[in-house]
Amino acid sequence: MRTVVAVDWSEQSFNAVKVVCRLFTHESLTLIHAVDLRPFENPLFAQPLGRKSAGVMREAMVAAGERLLDQTSALVPVTIPSIQRVYKIGNPAPVVLDAIRSARAHLVAVGSQGRGRLAELVLGSVSHRVVLHAPCAALLVRGDPGSLRRVLLTVEGYEDSLRLRSWLRTHRFSQPIELSLLTVVPAIPIGDSTMEFPYDKWTAEMDQYARQLVDETAAALRTMYPVVTAQVEHGDPAHCITEAAGHADLVIVGSHGWRGLEHFLLGSVSHAVLHKVTCPILLIR
Predict the structure, then answer these.
(1) Does domain 150-284 correspond to CATH entry 3.40.50.620?
(2) Residues 144-168: pLDDT tens digits?
(3) Which of 80, 100, 136, 163 is deepest in the core (most CB within 10 A)?
(4) Computed from CA positions of residues 19, 83, 31, 103, in that sequence, does the dihedral angle turn out positive or negative?
């Protein structure tokens, strides 16, 4: 696996390095740190302090970035054949996305401090912009759960199932895991209580479809992972997944490819889960 890890001085970023190194076997690993010096170009900052002071601050940030790469490199096992350190000056999110494309990465890992959805839209978040726009799978890490044995895999449909199974077949976990498969049947929205439609029939058909989906997916996954359980829940998918994630060390979700503002306006299960689940989340495209 070719992996890129975006690093900064946050605890979550250090956790991302440790978690991704434990989860998978890596062919190559790139640590990238980007420093945004645009604030120093603001006249309100540069003119009162003078060019010399701004230059000193810039040099200090560059030196700190090199120290950061030293410290995060020390967390990477020496068994990884190729370890690259990349330090660049620029807008962090585009820099990281360029590094992902250059490395032809299968996975990008980032730390997240857990901004809410409104804050993400208004203030921006490097980690969430990378996760949403990366052309590969993305691992979002807040805390380090220590053990990475209990994995919750959420499936929304057959297309989702095939994508997840294909990725997990190609990129195996480096240690034994217990895989819990979850599909959630959402409630049928009733706009008008006076409307007549076969609610019970539709609900039964949805439940049958969901049960068949999890059974077939679980059977396929057992050829790769011996311990696989499957369950069907009913209710709001994001809520059910968040509740189940409380017993997991890692949550895996699929993405249907929404981008930017569409996430906030239209919503998606995977995007909602990114903001509510506290354990590491692997988003597979």
Answers:
(1) yes
(2) 888 899 999 999 888 889 999 999 9
(3) 100
(4) negative
